[in-house]
Amino acid sequence: MSTFTIFLVLIMIVAFLLIVVIMVQNPKGGGLSSSFGGGAGAQMGGVQKTSDFLDKSTWTLATVMLALILLSNIPIMGGSGIQSKTFDESAVPTSVPSPSANPAGNTQETPAE
């Protein structure tokens, strides 16, 4: 299993977790955090901590995903950063065919007179 494949699997796991954490939140105060609170006293302690946990986990998972995406480029580049392609001189033919004396490209011989 290549290093890029490992990074790809980790990115997919973090993406799934990030989707779950975001779907649990509700931007209007509902979601998972509102289902735990009953009275006004319980809302002050339990709901706020749940909301803070979901907020921090969202930012943490987003940061981890960004780091994994950036680190996944290292195996693609060969691990040494930016690589410049060098000109391969062995691919160049050593002998270049000379231009034909006949510019029209005819291969027929001219008749001798």
Provide mean pLDDT, rounded: 73
Distance between the termini: 75 Å
Q: Sketch the topology as an H/E string, one letter per element.
A: HHHH
Percent helix, as a range, is 55-70%
Count the helices. How many?
Answer: 4
The residue ranges in which pLDDT falls below 50 over 5 or more consecutive positions are: 38-42
Beta-strand portion reads under 5%
**In one word, what is the shape?**
rod-shaped
What structural class is derived from the secondary structure elements? mainly alpha
> What's the main sheet like?
none
Tell me how many strands there are. 0
Rg (C-alpha, Å): 33 Å
What does this structure look like?
By secondary structure, the chain is an all-alpha fold. 57% of the residues lie in helices and 0% in strands. The chain has a domain at 1-29 and 45-78. It contains four helices and no strands. The N and C termini lie far apart (75 Å). The relative contact order is 0.11. Residues 38-42 have low confidence and may be disordered. This is Protein-export membrane protein SecG. InterPro entries: SecG. It comes from Aequorivita echinoideorum.
